[in-house]
Design a protein that fits this description.
The protein has 338 residues and is an alpha+beta fold. The protein has two domains: 151 residues, Glutaredoxin (3-Layer(aba) Sandwich), CATH 3.40.30.10; 154 residues, Glutathione S-transferase Yfyf (Class Pi), Chain A, domain 2 (Up-down Bundle), CATH 1.20.1050. It contains nine helices and six strands. A four-stranded mixed sheet has the order 2-1-5-6. A two-stranded antiparallel ribbon has the order 3-4. Helix 2 links the parallel strand 1 and strand 2.
C-alpha cells in the first residue's frame, strides 16, 4: 500500500485527531490493479460503481469520459443521499435506488441506476463489499464482472490504471489525452501539483467543512485559499493547463473540487473566502476543462446539491447562486471573470 500523500492521508494518531474534532479520511482496502495477472485489460470486462455527488467518484467518471471508455466500462450510479436512520440496514449507506425522489427537483433522478454488475441486483454498495468479506462501504469501486471481484476502491489509482490501459480497455477516443505522460519532467510536475492539490484542495475542503475544531477549520481554510492564489499565479503566464498546453492528471484531480466550489463548497464547506469566479485565470481554466469532450456529462450539480445539503441543514437545499447566472451554465462563459 502506498504512502503517497497525494493519494491518502497520513493516519498518524488518527483516533486522537478525530476525537478532538478533525476530519481524517480513512484508507481504501482494495488495491489490485488492471494489468495484474488476475485482472487483464480487456474491453467490456470492468464496471464502475459511483455516486455523482462524490468528488472522488467524479475523478473516475471524468477519466472514463475523457479517455473515451463510456462504451467499454459500464457504470452504476447511486442516489446522492445515503440511507437514513429508518433504513433496516442502517444509516449512511450508499444505495442504488432509482425510485427515490430528490427533494431538490421533486422527481426521480434519471442518472440513478439499479445495481447491474453482480447479477444480484444488490441495493447497497456495502453488500458488494460483503460478498468479499469486507465491511467497507465507500465509492467509487472498480469491479471485474468476469471474476465477480472488486479490483480497486482508491480513486487515484483507478484513474492511473484506466489511463495506462485505455487502448486495451476499448477507448473510442483517438485524440484522448495522456493523463500520466511518459516524460519524467512532466511526471515530476504532476506529482508536485497532485500533492499540494490533494492535501489543501481536495481533502482540504473536507477538513474545512467537516472538522468540528475551529483551529483545524481555520488552518484548512487558509491553506485552501493560499493554494487557489498559487494556482492563479501559475496560470497567469497564459498556459492552458496546469503543466502547460496539455490536459493532465493534475487538471483532472483539481477539477471536481473547483467545479463544486461556487455552487456548493463556498457555503456548505464554509469556504466563503472567495469564489472561483474571483480568480480570472482559474475561472477560465475551469471553463476550459468543462468544455472538453465528455466533461459536462461526467458530473451533476443536481446530485452535488442534493447530496451535500439533502440530509443536513434540515434537508433544505439552497437554490443559488443565481448571480451572475446559475451553475453549471456559468461554466460555459469564461468571460464572466473579465
Amino acid at each position: 500500500m502506498t504512502d503517497d500523500t497525494s493519494i491518502q492521508e497520513d493516519q498518524t494518531d488518527v483516533a486522537v485527531r478525530r476525537a478532538r474534532g478533525e476530519f481524517v479520511r480513512g484508507l481504501s482496502g482494495f488495491r489490485h490493479a488492471i494489468g495484474d495477472a488476475e485482472f487483464p485489460p480487456e474491453a467490456g470486462r470492468y464496471h464502475l460503481f459511483v455516486a455523482l455527488n462524490c468528488p472522488w467518484c467524479h475523478r473516475v467518471t471524468l477519466t472514463r469520459a475523457v479517455l473515451g471508455l463510456q462504451d467499454s466500462i459500464t457504470m452504476d450510479v447511486a442516489f446522492p443521499n445515503r440511507t437514513g436512520d429508518d433504513d433496516p440496514a442502517g444509516p449512511n449507506l450508499w444505495e442504488f435506488a432509482p425510485h427515490r425522489v430528490a427533494s431538490l427537483t421533486d422527481t426521480r433522478l434519471s442518472d440513478c441506476t439499479e445495481e447491474t454488475a453482480t447479477g444480484e441486483s444488490l441495493r447497497l454498495a456495502k453488500a458488494i463489499y460483503q460478498r468479499e468479506g469486507s465491511q467497507e462501504q465507500s465509492l467509487p469501486v472498480l469491479y471485474d464482472k468476469h471474476a465477480g471481484r472488486i479490483v480497486n476502491n482508491e480513486s487515484a489509482e483507478i484513474i492511473r490504471m484506466l489511463d495506462a490501459h485505455a487502448a486495451a480497455l476499448g477507448s473510442t477516443n483517438a485524440q484522448r489525452p495522456q493523463l500520466w505522460p511518459a516524460d519524467a519532467g512532466l511526471r515530476d510536475q504532476i506529482r508536485h501539483l497532485n500533492d499540494r492539490i490533494y492535501t489543501t484542495i481536495n481533502n482540504g475542503a473536507y477538513k474545512a467543512g467537516f472538522s468540528s475544531d475551529q483551529g483545524v477549520y481555520a488552518q484548512a481554510f487558509t491553506a485552501y485559499f493560499d493554494t487557489l492564489a498559487w494556482l492563479e499565479d501559475l496560470l497567469s503566464d497564459g498556459r492552458a493547463y496546469l503543466t502547460g498546453d496539455a490536459f493532465s492528471e493534475a487538471d483532472l484531480r483539481l477539477f471536481p473540487t473547483l467545479y463544486r466550489h461556487d455552487p456548493v463548497y463556498h457555503l456548505r464547506m464554509k469556504l466563503n473566502g472567495a469564489r472561483i469566479l474571483d480568480y480570472p485565470h482559474l475561472w477560465r481554466w475551469l471553463c476550459r476543462v468543462y468544455a472538453l469532450s465528455g466533461v459536462a456529462g461526467a458530473g451533476s450539480l443536481i446530485h452535488c446539491r442534493q447530496g451535500y445539503f439533502g440530509r443536513t441543514w434540515n434537508g433544505t437545499i439552497p437554490l443559488g447562486p443565481l448571480t451572475p447566472m446559475s451553475y453549471p451554465q456559468a461554466y460555459l462563459h469564461p468571460e464572466l471573470a473579465g
